[in-house]
Amino acid sequence: MKKPSGAFAVGLALLLVHGAPATVRGGQALAPTLADAKPGDVRLIATAAIRFPDAVVAAAEKAIGKKLVIQYGSARGNLKDTILKGQEFEVAILLPDVNEEIFKAGKILPETHEIARVPIAFGLRGEAPGLDVSTPEAVRSALLKAKSVKYAPTGAALLTVKKVFSVLDIADKVQDSSTARAEVPLGPGEYEINIYPISEIIPNKALKNLGPVIAPLQVPSILQTVIGAHANDQKAARALTKFLQGPAIDETLKTTGMTKSVVDGTLK
């Protein structure tokens, strides 16, 4: 599944923000994964709904006294699959339903640490001046008239997508392009609606941010950190978790439309 403009795509090639350079295979550079981490590195797996700038990564490394390797992806997709297949890590930033599943599989400790909540938003690609998404009726009309409705089938916005489709009774009526590998072409007067975490829409230059999905249709994504059951360094993992619940990421959250939320819990 491909998200327009690629830069903040969910479920595409994994991105390493800080760490070893990309390897080359078959003449093409590949983004490194946690497999490239060296002994002693702290491995962080994170949903693409949140991305940390270099300055935050550097501050995190200073706080934990270790080099940090970050692998981004789709929480309900490639990241969950990678963990279930045995990838070990120190900390993961995932979603509650994913954490419940991987906990039952024995992959994480029972503790959870919420760090943020992310509203799901509408992003516009194409031509639709003054498009209204301020009421359920307006949202229904906008989605039905769109040439394409794009979202990640395993992404952080999925619960909102399901609620929108169910409440408005349009699941089988919209032009669903969620599994399209190529960008849907748009002609004059045509447009595409993207449904993604607002943190992915804001930095996407190909999209106009139409704002968060209205409250009656909104299911914000809850981002929780968890610690790997086989983490090599639990002390560093807890230090990183404390860092992520602290003020160091506040500006990142603010500029990408997220809200700070510090809630600890226990999986059963």
Task: Write a brief structural summary.
This protein is an alpha/beta fold. The chain is about 25% helix and about 25% strand. α1 crosses α7.
Structure write-up:
The two termini are 33 Å apart. The N terminus is likely disordered. The protein is built from eight helices and twelve strands. 27% of the residues lie in helices and 25% in strands. Strands 4-3-5-11-6-12 form a six-stranded mixed sheet. The protein folds into two domains: 140 residues, Periplasmic binding protein-like II (D-Maltodextrin-Binding Protein, domain 2, 3-Layer(aba) Sandwich); 98 residues, D-Maltodextrin-Binding Protein, domain 2, CATH 3.40.190. Helix 1 packs across helix 7. The protein has 268 residues and is of the alpha/beta class.
List the helices and strands and how they pair.
Layout: E1 23-25, E2 28-30, E3 42-47, H1 54-64, E4 68-73, H2 75-84, E5 91-94, H3 96-104, E6 111-118, E7 120-126, H4 136-145, E8 148-150, H5 158-168, E9 191-197, H6 198-201, E10 208-212, E11 221-227, H7 234-244, H8 250-255, E12 259-266
Parallel strand pairs: 3-4, 3-5, 8-9
Antiparallel strand pairs: 1-2, 5-11, 6-11, 6-12, 7-9, 7-10
> Which bin fits the share of residues in helices?
25-40%
Give the integer mean of the pLDDT values.
Answer: 89
Question: How many independent structural domains?
Answer: 2
Please identify the top-level CATH class of the largest domain. Alpha Beta
Helix segment count?
Answer: 8
Taking the sheet with the most strands, its summary is: 6 strands, mixed
* Number of strand elements: 12
**Rg calc:** 19 Å
By CATH, the architecture of the largest domain is named 3-Layer(aba) Sandwich
CATH topology of the largest domain: D-Maltodextrin-Binding Protein, domain 2
CATH superfamily of the largest domain: Periplasmic binding protein-like II
Uncertain runs with pLDDT below 50, 5 residues or more?
1-30
Structural class by SSE content: alpha/beta
Strand order in the sheet with the most strands: 4-3-5-11-6-12
N- to C-terminal distance: 33 Å
Q: What is the H-and-E element order?
A: EEEHEHEHEEHEHEHEEHHE
Question: What shape does the CA trace take?
Answer: elongated
The amount of beta strand, in percent, is 25-35%
